[in-house]
Amino acid sequence: MQTHLPEVLLIIDPDRRFHEFLNEDFKACVAAKPGRLFAEPLCVISIREAQRVLSMREVRLAGVFVNPSVGTPAWLSVLKDVERYYPKCPRWVVCDRLPELSDAERIRHKIQAVLQKPIGYVELNDEVDRIIFDTGKK
Known about the structure:
Strand content: 15-25%
Distance between the termini: 36 Å
Oligomer: single chain
Order of helices and strands: EHEHEHEHEH
Shape: globular
Largest sheet: 5 strands, parallel
Number of helices: 5
């Protein structure tokens, strides 16, 4: 019997192909390292879906990755929900082109970094590991 819920990476991005790529990359990681635990990607395409996931207490988040293209400026409301429901959860912006985001906004919303696509599951997982385990690897 499982004693705790598995952790997930919440990916909020309207690009379904990106979701497919991340899920395939995740499966390849699991197959390559069968003894290691990986946080499974939980991909959603809209702010509404993200807010529903964030309000579910049974979800354990290892990290949140949000693409501003899900809706401007509404994507910032997702970061506020992360702060409300999961205040210690690290968060990143992942996007096709770099958003206009000041250092003050990045700090206020506790954004670890802005990551530019193309990016795969391995890189997202490494970002989380770097924060959680403070590995310092970049």
